[in-house]
Write a structure and sequence with these properties.
Helices cover 76% and strands 2% of the residues. The protein contains 14 helices and four strands. The chain is globular, with a radius of gyration of 22 Å. The strands form two sheets. Strands 1-2 form a two-stranded antiparallel sheet. The chain has a two-stranded antiparallel ribbon with strand order 3-4. The chain is an all-alpha fold.
Length: 502
């Protein structure tokens, strides 16, 4: 059975001291996640640019393989949450899992500073393994701060999501600035400083949680019979075994075959969750089916959203006019538009959900997901318009359509991603909350891997062109918009399967 402490907050969450209307530990988890996301996004914006510059001499022929490595990396980052969630549920608890994951991620971030492709991929493998132990489990603990039925839970996840995006906003600006100041080179041309800075961010995340975890009490503690060092050592050994496996998946399997492997893994996880739901009765079974249905739409959302770190990067570098009043806007700084928009818009969205909830008109979870897909679609519509009508004589488009794209994606993200995290904690069987959260991140992993394949297709063999970008982004708009409409149509059926959960 799962640790009693892992589910303690289902009944005791309301006993936490309250701060700004929410349980006090939420703010400690907020800052822990801020520094972890600083580390993650601090290297994410640089990843494809670094691969092309370091291993392909800056040639456009490196864009497609860089996109595929990026997609495989992101896919494995989120897929690893499946094993990390299981380890926390059954073996070492959420708290120890987060601390171990932070250490492994930090090692990986410092390892990728070595300018050798094999060592670089080894560093990515360490980051992936550590992230699997960290990411799903801190999200699970946010849900456990609230009692079942507490209407503040969605708003709590939205606040937590702001921590994620404050880190994401700060990271590209700070790491790019450090690269130029510490080395006296143009921004984005010294990636080693970027990676060291993100490693330091991971150290801060570890320390913040280490000193703040006492606030959590029993939440996230392992089962009493798992408190000893033996289970911890077993997980450490498992992580050591996982690293070379992940290395092999990136280096030798590749994004295409990884898509099939992740799909098969999703089927296995879905079967495990359905079996657990059936054991707990008809209501839990139906809720698991509803949750898995939303996972499938989540795949589509992230397949297109994660063009931000691949095809959008190459669009910004090669096709967008970044000259602003004689100053060239750095390519990587576009990555701060999305998190900045989230920080500014998320409080308004949280207030809007609360206002509608008090009047019994708040959209259901499926309809919020549908709004998310349509918002993502409109982002691609902005790029379609620019690539059709605004291409100048120099074969460049203006600055603003890409900024508008990121803002529209943000609106879609706020309707889907924090709501999805909250949804899992509401619908998952209590014994497998961590596994269910791992399943959520697995669906995101599948979408991320497919994003790399799509980005590679858009860039082709010689690099992105206006025509290839227009074709790829047109396909993206129609598929996303159609999926959003379908979800609106079938929302009543999914709501019925949820049995009153909103």
């Amino acid at each position: 059975m799962a640790a009693p402490g892992n589910n303690a907050a289902q009944t005791t969450g309301i006993d936490f001291p309250q701060r700004l209307g929410h349980p006090a530990p939420l703010w400690m988890l907020f800052m822990t996640e801020f520094w972890e996301r600083f580390s993650f996004y601090g290297m994410r914006w640089a990843l494809t640019l670094y691969i092309v510059a370091q291993f392909y001499g800056g040639s456009g022929t490196g864009e497609a393989p860089a996109g595929r490595i990026y997609g495989a990396y992101l896919a494995l980052v989120y897929a690893s949450g499946l094993l990390g969630g299981y380890a926390a549920d059954r073996l070492i608890g959420y708290q120890r899992s987060i601390l171990l994951g932070a250490v492994i991620m930090g090692l990986g971030l410092f390892t990728i500073t070595v300018p050798n492709q094999h060592i670089f991929i080894l560093g990515l493998a360490l980051v992936i393994t550590g992230n699997g132990l960290f990411k799903p489990n801190i999200s699970s603990m946010v849900g456990q701060l609230y009692a079942q039925g507490d209407p503040r839970r969605d708003r709590g996840f939205t606040i937590f999501y702001m921590g994620i995006n404050l880190g994401g906003f700060t990271a590209p600006l700070v790491t790019g600035w450090l690269a130029s100041v510490l080395t006296n080179t143009p921004q984005h041309q010294n990636y080693r400083v970027v990676f060291v800075a993100t490693g330091c961010g991971m150290i801060l995340s570890y320390l913040w949680f280490w000193f703040g975890r006492r606030q959590l009490g029993a939440i996230g503690r392992p089962p009493p019979d798992r408190e000893g060092p033996k289970t911890m050592m077993a997980v450490i050994v498992g992580a050591a075994i996982a690293v070379p496996i992940v290395y092999a998946l990136i280096s030798y399997v590749g994004a295409y075959w990884l898509a099939w492997l992740l799909g098969a893994l999703f089927v296995v996880v879905a079967a495990m969750l359905i079996i657990e739901g059936v054991r707990e009765g008809t209501v839990k079974r139906d809720r698991v089916i509803a949750m898995l249905t939303m996972f499938l739409f989540n795949v589509l959302f992230w397949m297109f959203f994660e063009q931000a770190g691949s095809s959008f990067n190459f669009l910004a570098q090669n096709i967008v006019d970044r000259n602003l009043f004689g100053w060239e806007f750095p390519t990587g700084w576009f990555q701060s538009v999305n998190p900045l928009a989230i920080v500014l818009i998320a409080p308004l969205v949280a207030l809007a959900w609360g206002w509608m909830n008090r009047r019994n008109i708040e959209p259901s979870i499926p309809r919020k997901f549908g709004l998310g897909l349509i918002g993502n679609a409109l982002a691609f519509l902005a790029l379609m318009y620019a690539l059709k009508h605004l291409v100048g004589a120099d074969n460049h488009i203006p600055f603003w359509p890409l900024v508008a794209c990121y803002v529209l994606q943000t609106l879609g993200e706020l309707c889907l991603s924090p709501i999805g995290l909250s949804m899992v904690t509401k619908l998952a069987p209590l014994r497998v909350v961590g596994l269910s959260m791992g399943g959520w991140f697995l669906s995101q992993a599948i979408g991320n891997n497919m994003s790399g394949l799509l980005a590679g297709s858009i860039s082709g063999e010689t690099g992105m062109t206006v025509a290839s970008a227009l074709d790829g982004f047109t396909f993206s708009f129609y598929l996303l918009f159609g999926a959003g409409v379908v979800l609106f149509v079938i929302a009543p059926l999914i709501n019925k399967l949820m049995h009153g959960v909103r």
